[in-house]
Amino acid sequence: xxxxxxxxxxxxxxxxxxxxxxxxxxxxxxxxxxxxxxxxxxxxxxx
Length: 47
Hints:
By secondary structure, the chain is mostly helical. Helices cover 68% and strands 0% of the residues.
């Protein structure tokens, strides 16, 4: 089951996310999804 989350970030971080989206021809939502997935993998590998 899917869940939706939202968060607020500083303008500089939003620009970095938008730049990644343009660079890789992705939506900002896809970029955020990938960033969260990679972050969770990093946490799990440290445990």
